[in-house]
Amino acid sequence: MDQITLGYAPTRRSIFSAPDAVKYADLTRRKLEELGVSFVDIDDIAEDGLLHDEADRIRIAEKFKQERVDGLFFPHTNFGTEYEVARLAKEMGVPVLLWGPRDERPDENGIRLRDSQCGLFATGKVLRRFRVPFTYLCNCRLEDAEFARGIRNFLAVCNVVKAFRKTRILQIGPRPYDFWSTMCNEGELLEKYNIQLAPVPLPELVAEMEQAKRDGTKTAEVIAYCRENFDIAVGEEELTNIAALKVAVRALADRYGCNAAAIQCWNALQSEIGIMPCAANSLLNEEGFPVVCETDIHGAVTAVLCEAAGMGEARSFFADWTVRHPDNENGELLQHCGPWPISCASHRPTIGYPLAFDYPGAVEAEARHGEMTLCRFDGDNGEYSLLLGRAKGVEGPYTKGTYVWVEVENLKRLEAKLVEGPYIHHCVGIHRDVVPVLYEACKYIGVTPDLYDNNEEEIKAFIRGED
After folding, report:
1. Which domain holds residue 138?
2. 58, 173, 349, 463 — which has fewest CB within 10 A?
3. In this structure, is the dihedral angle defined by the CA atoms of residues 176, 177, 181 and 184, taken in order, positive or negative?
4. pLDDT at position 109, please?
5. Are 124 and 192 members of one domain?
6. Using CA atoms, how far apart are residues 464 and 154, in angstroms rounded to an integer?
7. Do 273 and 225 share a structural domain?
């Protein structure tokens, strides 16, 4: 994961206490350093290290662009200069965090030094006039737990936005004929979101696999890794093909500058290379390079978003919603032939044969239980949304492939959303609660959040700093 860097621009207004504004700007700087936050300061541009002057703002914008900051943080260390905040935010076009330190008790003469909260009200209105989306962390003290939580949540939001805006997906083969549900509008994705595809025909993939076998070194390293981390129930030739496929996909992704892939995993691919691609997908997913099945471009976009929201702390997995739990009214089976990363597994996985195909190369293991986020980016007729919510792993019957039974709050409500659309039977999961991060990121990427738990007020409360 790339480091996320904030542009730090504390702001003040002249009629309030300048010394107190400087004091709180410095205290906030130290708190960010304590939290390990990477930030670009303005203390070398503004004489007092605060944003309130137009000439300074122009130079600050130049510096932030040169440093390629991923988000802007505007502490209102007194009332603040709302139009300078809005001008800078509009020009930069990155996520914006508003916050101000809680004001002290008026002194014995009734004098208030900062009025930070009042300034935040003004800035929020002006940002709306400028049509600049922003995140608001409610007025609190630097020592309050919600401050650290809010900063970390915002860094993850910035990471999602950064990943989404540079997404280029390696498309290996066309979608399988039978999968009309995974068709996408390539031109629209480019026009609306700058999401780019790098299509690769199957012969190019096969040629890259042959090159990987001839070179040998990387393929041998992957084979050794598989023997160390999997039980192997396929032959030597099949294992070599799995390793060569993994090396080939990574090489193609690097060549075309891609941060995710969608592969045509049936049926032409198997007859070309003699294996299912699932185990190779699993290996790539474990590295943090998302690969999804059935040339599901929207699924690959979902995986990029989910990985970025997790900040590298957990790997995501690509799954089918398949069947309802036989005993749990809100239970559902998430399953796929075997592309899930091994860090999701509850036990040592096996490379063997899938449920529905004769070719080897699938991974078999039940995933760990625990709390998860499930999500799906999708769209049709020019409108796109992100279905997202929480689930937890539960006990259920054994089945083939990589799988986990999950329980959600209201399966019938979720099922109706999946059928009525614009979603399909594919989703991405991660063993983290990243619902607030993904929800907030939607406002910056132009995608509508769709909470299947029907808990929007709860998510908003978390973002603004409530317990």
Report:
1. 5-143
2. 58
3. positive
4. 72
5. no
6. 11
7. yes
Least confident of 96-105, 121-130, 298-307: 96-105
Q: What is the pLDDT of residue 1?
A: 58
Cα(318)–Cα(293) distance, integer angstroms: 8
Query: In whole angstroms, what is the distance from residue 77 CA to residue 139 CA?
Result: 11
Q: Answer yes or no: do 297 and 435 share one domain.
A: yes
SS3 state at 106: coil
CB contact at 8 A, 365 and 347: yes
| Short-list 424, 426, 425, 452, CA closest to 438 | 452
Q: How confident is the prediction for the chain on average, in pLDDT?
A: 94
Please say whether the beta carbons of 186 and 197 come within 8 A: yes
Region 64-78: mean pLDDT is 97
First-to-last C-alpha distance (Å) of the chain: 29
| Cβ atoms of 70 and 40 closer than 8 Å | no
Question: Residues 201, 98: one domain?
Answer: no
Note if the pTM is more than 0.70.
Answer: yes
Short-list 330, 370, 385, 373, CA closest to 459 = 373
